[in-house]
Structure formats: C-alpha cells, structure tokens
Specification:
The protein has about 260 residues and is of the alpha/beta class. It is built from 9 helices and 8 strands. The chain has a single domain, classed as Metal-dependent hydrolases (TIM Barrel), CATH 3.20.20. Helix 8 crosses helix 9. The protein starts with a strand and ends with a helix.
C-alpha cells in the first residue's frame, strides 16, 4: 500500500523533538510522501524549509489560514508569491473561511481568501482550501476563481451533502481525514464518502490534529501523525465498500496528478 498524506502540519511544535522518527514511522506504514501545510507567513516558510530538507519525501503549500487572516497585507502577499514559485511548493493555501471559531473578523477572512485566490490564478497553481461553517460565502468566492486555477481541493471535508455536491459540481477534489473515524461526529462523512468519485478523493491526517478516535491503543500524548493515514484509508475503504488497496491506489493516483508529483 502506497499512500500520500495531503495535509500534515509538520511545522507544529509537537514534531520538533522527533520529526525524523515520525517520518520513519510514516514510511514503514506505507506513507511515501507528505504535503506539509503552510498556514501562516512563518509556517509557510517553515514548510518550504522542511520540504527542502527532505527532497522527494516532503512537499509544501504556502498560504495563510483564515485564523491568521488579520495579518494578511502587502508584505504577506508578496512573500506567498515568492514562496509559491519554489519547486517544492505544490499549492496555494491553506486558505479559505472559518466562521466556526471566528478567530479573525469575517471581512478580513474574505479579503485574505480573495487575495490568495488571486495568487493561485496569477501563478496557475492548485488551491488547498479550508471551510468550516462558511459554505455559502466560501462558494461565492471560490466560483469567482474556479475556472482560472488548474485544481482545487477542499481539505478536511466535514460538511453536508449539499456542500459536497456543490464542490463536486465545480470539479473540486475532496480531502478526507480521521474525522470519519469519529463515532460522534463522523457519521455524515461516513455516509457521504461513498459519493465521492475515486478520481477526486484524497486522504490526509491533518496531523497533529484529528487523531482517529478509534486508534487502539491511543498514543499517550494524543498526537496524530502521518503513520495513521493507513488507518484512515482502511476506514474510508470500509464505508465505500471496497478493498483498502484499491482506495489507496486511487487516492494516491489522484494526489500525484493533482499536485504534479513524480511517480
């Protein structure tokens, strides 16, 4: 089984002490590559640095998460454009809207999202997107740029049926995390994952967040890491009624094509 984790926050401080061991455990579990999420100015630079330190194994995105949208200005925009031109950076993001936590004012979130849509359009790059409790505003802004960017993934999908099909109608890819393993919150995703075409389904851990709740035994520190992508893949396969090897193969092929990764 060969897997690619499309969303791993390996710049998180919890990985500073043992990143090499984390990467080795991922390799042993069949995770051949990981996309390191850039979610702030500093985080995007750090993600690129990690990708350069681990060529062919790690790649990066460059973006500003809606939580940090209030910090988005001309300097940030210029930096993201600079980072996104580096060969190790394979998408613009993580960007989008988050009305669940509202850690940045909503007008600032929308402005930062629009700016980053512009970066992706100008550089002809894929988008790595975040949306929580903001679907209608998110969709309006996404539609304004969708036909001018090569590809879009709505990562960590947790929304309802209407949202899923509106994204699929825009030819978006969908990222599924360990949320599907949560018996309390994941039932809706379990029901919908079978509706995602195999060519548009991708897998991610969102590590160190969203540790699958059914991991036994759970790690003492409750930290999620890329080695658990195999567990997520198996959960997705069960809900789709297919062999895990088929799910893994299709998701990996879709991911390579989406990000332009070598075979």
């Amino acid at each position: 089984m060969h897997l690619i984790d499309i969303g791993a926050n390996l710049t998180h401080e919890s990985f500073r002490r043992d990143l090499d061991a984390v990467l080795e455990r991922a390799r042993e579990a069949g995770v051949e590559r990981m996309i390191v999420t850039g979610a702030s100015r500093e985080g995007s630079q750090h993600a690129l640095d990690l990708a350069r330190e681990h060529p062919g194994k790690l790649y990066a995105t460059a973006g500003v998460h809606p939580h940090h949208a209030g910090d988005y200005g001309a300097e940030t925009d210029a930096l993201l454009r600079e980072l996104a031109r580096e060969p190790e950076v394979v998408a613009v993001g993580e960007t989008g809207l988050d009305y669940y936590r509202d850690l940045s004012p909503r007008p600032a979130q929308r402005a930062a999202f629009e700016k980053q849509l512009g970066v992706a359009v100008d550089l002809n790059m894929p988008l790595f997107l975040h949306q929580r409790d903001a679907h209608d505003d998110f969709l309006v802004l996404l539609k304004s740029a969708r036909d001018r960017v090569p590809a879009v993934v709505v990562h960590c999908f947790t929304d309802e049926r209407r949202a899923l099909f509106e994204y699929l109608d825009l030819d978006c890819h969908i990222g599924i995390t360990g949320w599907i393993c949560d018996e309390r919150r994941g039932m809706q995703v379990r029901e919908l994952v079978r509706e995602i075409p195999a060519t548009r389904l991708m897998l991610e851990t969102d590590a160190p967040y969203l540790l699958p709740r059914d991991i036994r035994p759970p790690p003492a520190d409750r930290r999620n890491e890329p080695m658990y992508l195999k567990h997520i893949c198996e959960a997705v396969a069960r809900e789709r009624g297919e062999d895990a090897a088929l799910t893994a193969g299709n998701a990996t092929a879709a991911t390579r094509a989406f990000f332009g990764l070598p075979s």
